[in-house]
Amino acid sequence: MTAAGVSAAGVIAEEVSAAGATAGETTTARTTTAGQTAAAGTAAAGTASAGTATGGTATGGTAVAGRLSWLLFGVLVLAQIGYPLTGGTERARLTVATVCLGWLLSVSHALLTRGLRVAVGLVLVTTGGGLAVEALGVATGLPFGGYAYSGELGPKLAGVPLVIPLAWTWMAWPAWLAAVRLTRPGPARVALAALGLAGWDLFLDPQMVAEGYWSWRDPDPALPGVPDVPVSNYLGWLVFAVLLMTLLGPVAGRAAALAADRDAPIYALYLWTYAGSVLAHAVFLGLPASAGWGGLAMAVVAGPLALRLARHRPRPRTRAATPA
Question: How confident is the model at residue 22 (pLDDT cuts 50, 70, 90)?
């Protein structure tokens, strides 16, 4: 991981720590005087107990969501680190496992931090939409260009490996939340989220084509240094990403449009994907051109996101002395 990636991860970790400290602060009640009635004392104690229980439940739910998301993120990173160390069938299986982990991370985070409607909406729009557009693409060549999948990524439905739609969800959620953090609701948010998702494909497609997981019938015209993937593919990704992000907000509901410190694992996922992909393509996979193109494209979102997190780094809080 590059120095920028490490720095961004450190900022994110500090945000999580500060958020946890804030959630854990509680106030203490003073002892009632001897002159207060027993009934008043009982009522006050009951109110305090109810407040403590409510706060504990909210804090506990946030903590569970955070721990699970960070755990899945850690396993995902380990799987991706293992990618250059494998080959053949083992690499294909690891690819499928990595995509499944990414899908699980995004969907579980949406569910635990924003509720069932957001999670269901995310799956319907991105997983369902991903399957639909991929089936259309394999059958007609629209909107990406003519291509076909090999059999290395597992079972297929309508010519599309079942794991492929999961990949759309895996990175659509981080791209969306990054745009939520950086922009206000409206066309700018949709555009930035779409760029954040489509930019990832400048890493994804060259890497997967090099592995033989799919191939293009006519890869011309192509980007310099990436001769096996047509430019039409990237344009198709951008067009469809705009459609996905346009639908995601209304379908997932209002909660999907709110930024929160609990989104730190997903910010980390986006920044890790960016920094890790640049490093892997440039150093381990022998794809320097896609490292450059993908690095430029994803930087449109990754750069501002890293800067925003750095500028809004929480400061340590100091507690005032409690009078005796």
Answer: very low
Distance CA 58, CA 50 (A): 13
3-state secondary structure of 320: coil
**Residue 317 to residue 65: CA distance in whole angstroms:** 24
pLDDT at 43 over 60: no
pLDDT number for residue 59:
52
Residue in the structure block whose two tokens are 């991370």: 105
CB 97, CB 79: distance < 8 Å:
yes
Backbone angles phi, psi at 213, to 5 degrees: -80, -25
Rounded CA gap, 178 and 269, in Å?
A: 10
128, pLDDT greater than 60: yes
Q: How far apart are the C-alpha atoms of 303 and 301, rounded to whole Å?
A: 6
N residues, the chain: 324
The residue whose two tokens read 């120095």 is 3
Bond preceding residue 143 cis, omega within 30 of 0: yes
Run of H or E residues at 222: strand 222-223
**In DSSP terms, which residues pair with 226 in a beta bridge?**
223
User: What are 202's two structure tokens?
Assistant: 């400048």
Name, in order, each residue with C-beta under 8 angstroms of 101's C-beta and a sequence gap of 6 or more.
Answer: 72, 75, 76, 79
3-state secondary structure of 228: strand
| DSSP state for residue 319 in the 8-state scheme | P
Q: What whole-number distance in Å separates Cα of residue 304 and Cα of residue 301?
A: 6
Considering only CA atoms, which of 17, 170, 158, 191 is closest in space to residue 79?
Answer: 170
Of the candidates 41, 43, 44, the one whose C-alpha atom is nearest the C-alpha of residue 33 is 41
Provide the 3-class DSSP secondary structure of residue 216.
strand
User: Which residues touch 262 (CB under 8 Å, ≥6 apart)?
Assistant: 19, 62, 65, 66, 113
Question: What tokens appear for 82 in the block?
Answer: 């293992």
